[in-house]
Design goal:
Blueprint (H helix, E strand, L loop, with lengths): L1 H28 L2 E4 L2 E3 L7 E3 L7 H68 L19
Antiparallel strand pairs: 1-2, 1-3
């Protein structure tokens, strides 16, 4: 009786292993086709079969994944640096434009003040105008 039970357990065990290995076997037999600029698991007219087996060792795969993570991290750092530089440049340009506007306004004010001063100087240099009306003072109280 033990032999029948042992055989049944062995059969169930082998079936379980077969079920676990079936997807891996199916995956390895799956083919990939290149159809123009796209890749598919279905054959197409004019498509070429590609070998997409990853024959790298686990250590090679881990090293490649680690390098990819390092590269992604470095790319993120570079992006943050570039964004900060862009922001700094924009701020510097904004400040320079504001300073240029202030300088232009100050220059216009100075030119206006100089023009006014020159007009005053010209006015002072001319002969004084004669009054057209005679000044009448208030009458002094008489005899008081």
């Amino acid at each position: 009786m033990k032999t029948k039970t042992a055989q049944a357990v062995t059969a169930v065990f082998l079936m379980a292993i077969g079920i676990c290995l079936a997807p891996a076997a199916a995956q390895s037999s799956a083919r990939t086709w290149r159809c123009g600029n796209t890749y598919t698991d279905q054959p197409c007219q004019g498509g070429k079969t590609l070998n997409v087996d990853d024959s790298r060792s686990d250590a090679d795969r881990r090293a490649a994944e680690s390098a990819t993570r390092r590269n992604e991290k470095r790319a993120d750092e570079l992006e943050r640096s570039r964004v900060k530089l862009d922001r700094d440049v924009a701020e510097r340009d904004r400040k320079a434009a504001a300073e240029a506007r202030r300088a232009e306004l100050a220059e216009r004010k100075l030119a206006s003040a100089e023009k006014l001063q020159q007009a005053r100087i010209r006015k002072m240099g001319r002969e004084p105008r004669k009054s057209t009306k005679a000044f009448k003072s208030a009458a002094a109280p008489s005899g008081g």
